Amino acid sequence: xxxxxxxxxxxxxxxxxGALPAVAGELAQHSARHADSPGIxxxxxxxxxxxxxxxxxxxxxxxxxxxxxxxxxxxLKATVFSRPDFIAKSRQFVTVYLDGDEPGAQKWxxxxxxxxxPTLVVLDSGSxxxxxxxxxxxxxxxxxxxxxxxxxxxxxxxxxxxxxxxRVLDESQCRRLAYNGWVLDELTENxxxxxxxxxxxxxxxxxxxxxxERERLQVIAASIAxxxxxxxxxxxxxxxxxxxxxxxxxxxxxxxxxHAIGVGDAxxxxxxxxxxxxxxxxxxxxxxxRYKRVMDAVAVDPDYADADQLGAVGSKLQxxxxxxxxxxxxxxxxxxxxxxxxxAGNQIPYVRSGxxxxxxxxxxxLDQNEVAYEVVKGELRKSATPYYYKADLAELAESLGRKGExxxxxxxxxxxxxxxxxxxxxxxxxxxGLLRLQPDDAERVRSVASDVLGELDGxxxxxxxxxxxxxxxxxxxxxxxxxxxxxxxxxxxxxHERLQLICVKIxxxxxxxxTCDGFLAGS
Length: 523
Prior knowledge:
By secondary structure, the chain is mainly α. Helices cover about 60% and strands about 5% of the residues.
């Protein structure tokens, strides 16, 4: 049956958006950062204390890593954290809510190897990761996945290694691997293929009575295998024999629509890389017909959140466009009707944000960024974090060739952004926009980039997410200077010196120090 928002989730919306006055009692005991998930008994102290509490209580940790502006985070809170079964199961853990903009959060994110929002991680009381949980699943599965984590406290990566070495898995172990959030891991280009092989090996070692788990592992392996050949496939190369075998495995799953619908959320992990491999098959048209039927089924399945149903619409369009080079008029019309119906609903803001996030890729696939631009503009006055949408508006305006508008939105999104990690993230996007749209204004680039680097001036700020964006900024600035044949060398030198004023405050023993020192070094 369709999951609806619980009374607690509705009460959150009322408190945050003004429908009711604040109340005393149990909700008042939660800090502001916990108020949007009041049914969960979030740990009141810091992360280090939470592990001490977990050891004392002989419980594992359930860590939620998110951000207030993040639409998928709001969707998770609305559709999963509000479920009575999930709330009840969460009480077997010490639950920790960690917003990426909290003091010290980025350093914890480095330790737990989390980057993308949202991420749910299960850890033992010694800080060892047991598994992580991806989103977009059938809503009824989340509580049972926590059960799976409780049943076997062996780390998922160790279990995967054992399967790769030939260990036969029981049903519980296979389920543990099948529902681990492998797609949330950051892998280097050279790690994709080995990970796909390991997941495929795990699938082969699942017992006969774990058919759905085996198929889920095969689909996830196939999606990762496609990424391993991304550059080659985009350049027109034929898929390798290994990738072709993954395509064949997915084709076998799709041949049974009932089985395929059972792993419908995992089938949405398949992307343009994988679909290019499908396109090389002589039976690509039949493969696509089967995939479309499954996505159509997921798109109307009430056990999925509205935004995840729209995600299935987007996955279907991506497959059509990649394999057939264009979206037929009928398919485009049907997709727009579905989007328009979703947007016409009077969702509370934090539910609506997930829907907006889901429809933007659909507009892009339909080459309707002009419509998307107007839709997003309409959300500004409704959102509690309009700076998030202003970043989207900047990118949409840039795609439409409106340079002045794009730069205006990039500037406002950065100026209005809240939270140290978020301000740096939005600032890097602003500098990137300047480098693309106004590359001759070297002084503005220098001034804005200097301000953005200043966001890193503070304790525990140059960690996983910031490091990635600092590396992006480094590459972009170097390319900008190279394109100008070294004319902007003085700007690069100035920015290197600017960050050095921050670097010297970081102890040499900290990993952040080498990242900091390396920014534009030798440029």
